[in-house]
Amino acid sequence: MNVGWLVLIAALALSILGIVTIQTTQPSYASRQMVHLLIGIVFGVAVAVPDYRRLRRFTWPIAIISIILLVFVLIPFVPEWLVRPRNGARRWINLVVTDVQPSELAKIAWIALMAEWLARRDTYRRFTGFMLTFVVTLVPFSLILIEPDLGTALLFIPTLLVMLVVAGARLRHVFLVLLCGVSLGPLAYFTPGVLKPHQIARIDAIVAQFRGDSSLDRDEGFQAARARIVVGSGGLTGVGRDHARAIVQFNRLPEERNDMIFAVLVCRFGLLGGVVMGCLFILFAAAGMSVAATSREGFGRLLVVGITSMVFFQMFVNTGMTIGMLPITGMTLPFVSYGGTSLVATWIMAGLMLNVALRRPRRFQRESFTFDEST
């Protein structure tokens, strides 16, 4: 027994909470999500059994395959029955029985690759090596951004920074990147061609919201405005399933089983339900960081840190956009939102974290990432 089992407990509780929430408005999709959950658990157990250290030799091949899949969905002459655009985005490959989203698989492949990269060498302690990790990250980041999927693409940068800090990168390099991001980030809004028109419109909508201007609530800000109304309707303890379904349908909340699932959850179970969900994510993250802290093997430590950071950042962005604190980015809520590839991918991540937890450090193994600051 070790703290790694808490990762699975939190993951299972969040998944069940998601199925119950989906059932509020889409009972048929809740049944499908239950099937996805069973498949996800099977995959999670499968990756938890073999020693994770054997994965190191496969990180580059898996990363290359994920890049090929990301490129494949962007090829314009691929038949629509195989890659069908949805809402202007090319993100899914149709396998008849289900759809596969390569960007979800690319997140796992990239985390494993960066963990192997940082554990094997210490070149990132120099500024050129530090920036080289961003150059490698730019490949999946750019391909996912072109789909377009801005929300998923933005998860890579903060996750990489956390992994670099844990690996022992110099903090002055990290602060320099953060400073450049804060300084140059707003330029993306004013530079033509960087952001899609709908992405600019969403930024305009949240700026108008902060100003108290409701003129965009029936246009660019419709989804965000509806989500805030649905969230506020839940009160402290929620309104129950039937009432919550009526509220969601009356407000015509878009993507209520995907991006806006948190709004439905709070409407049905109230503020207390949202707090419970937040505590489960905190348990997941705390257990993950405990696993990383007790691992003396560099690859395993960084693998767990990368997974924990990406899941937590995704939760933070999704809930932030639902309650009107961040622009709408089309990002799902891990374990909770409907989606086969997303749920299976997050369970694979949970399985990898348990895998690391089950491999206890050897008694006299050297501590990971020890550096001489004078060099």
Highlighted features:
single chain; 375 residues; mainly alpha; two-stranded antiparallel ribbon; 66% helix; 1% strand
**Main pleated sheet:** 2 strands, antiparallel
Mean pLDDT: 88
Structural category is mainly alpha
Query: Percent range for helical residues?
Result: 55-70%
Order of strands side by side in the largest beta sheet?
Answer: 1-2
Oligomer: single chain
Residue share in β-strands: under 5%
Along the chain, the helix and strand elements come as: HHHEEHHHHHHHHHHHH
Spatial extent as radius of gyration: 21 Å
So what's the overall shape?
globular
Number of strands: 2
Number of helices: 15
Verbal overview:
With 375 residues, the chain is mainly α. It has one domain (4-358). Helices cover 66% and strands 1% of the residues. The protein has helices at residues 4-25, 27-48, 59-72, 102-120, 127-146, 150-154, 156-167, 171-184, 187-190, 197-210, 222-233, 241-250, 261-294, 298-322, 340-358, and strands at 93-94, 99-100. It has a two-stranded antiparallel ribbon. A hairpin with a 4-residue loop joins strand 1 and strand 2. Helix 1 (4-25) runs antiparallel to helix 13. The longest helix has 34 residues, at 261-294. The protein is globular, with a radius of gyration of 21 Å. It starts with a helix and ends in a 17-residue tail after the last helix.
